[in-house]
Fold this sequence. Notes:
Distance between the termini: 35 Å
Number of strands: 23
Order of helices and strands: HHHHHHEEEEEEEEEEEEEEEEEEEEEEE
Shape: globular
Strand order of the largest sheet: 3-4-5-6
Helix content: 10-25%
Strand content: 35-45%
Amino acid sequence: MTRTLSAILFLSSLLSRKMEVSQADYMNEDSDEWDYNFPNTFKLADYGFNTVSDEIPAHVIRKKDLKIKDVVKDHVLPLLPAKSLTKFRAVSKEWDKWIASPLLTYQQSFSYQSFSGYFYQDMNRGGDPIFLSMDQSTSGVPSPALDFLPDQNVKILSSCSGLLLCQGLEKYYVCNPATRDWKMLPLPRYYHGDEPAVVLAFEPSLRNIEAYYHVICAFPMIDQPIIGFEIYSSESNTWSCSSAYCTDLENPCLVGGGSYMKGVAYYETKSNEVLAFDVRHEIPAIISLPPIQVGRHGSLTQMEGELCYVAANNECGNVFLIDIYQGMEMSLKRSVSINLGLDRSFTQACKVLPCVNSDAVAIQAGRFIYLYHIREQKVESIESPCAMGPGNKFLPYINSLAMLH
Length: 405
């Protein structure tokens, strides 16, 4: 646990003692729904602090009349996940108003960018989405099935910085599952197919105060080995067809949705290539993936702010080999053999799942998903909702208050 998170937990605990709310009004701790239970006591020694001033900016400490609640309000709340902020709305009317304000929402959307868990959906059976939280105490969504959307049986296609892109019967929806806010997009001009290769591009920042986002669909031209691009902008609320196109893919068949990072949308293909598209300049490019041995599975992921391709296989028993390729050239940066702690003597297939803003590698094997933190050399596990299958989609999610425009 980092020192920043420790400070947040300590300062938050001081305020929780003042809250007078009925426990019967809140959800059970074991549920994926909102959890409003608070720890009863916290000690500085538990988090490695001598004084609170270790984490508070000097110019803030110099203010004589500053109260701890004001420090938390201005300097801690933007660093908390949406679930925790919803709890703190019960502190006071002042806090309720502040947390509901667009300014705090804007600050939190770019200050909190931690990996919270996965949205899972079986795309073949068309079941409701399920949210898998990696930390029950801090991350969650009130309606993981997305039943607040007007269409039933929606498909989740893409996830980016707390927002989800979904598809109903005929429409696309962008929604924030933490706030239940949603928007229906206008119909595109081109036919995107039954399994559209679409990417949601949303990048909260100091320059993006209006929180505009884009949806980029890469679609094959009819009877031609050409990939075109249609782009939706929330600023204009319109679709436009890019003048750029791609003709250099070995196999122009794209695999479902994609991912977005630092201005570029990425699409995996059925060949050993990745299609990259610079959203701002509308420039396509092709990234060649490293050759993967038969029986191994790889996935694009984000690690410590860099695009990576991670491949893994079960060598024997409970030992797994992980190879991490990085950069546009996809050169091998690290190869590590880890013990996932399983008590067995046979090998089994495994699957790498995408992560975001993390140093971890996620592997699905058997009935569990294992999250291996490379720096700490620590393994966490959660039970998987399914066995491995081609129709199973896991999308990484950030517990954000980001607003839609």
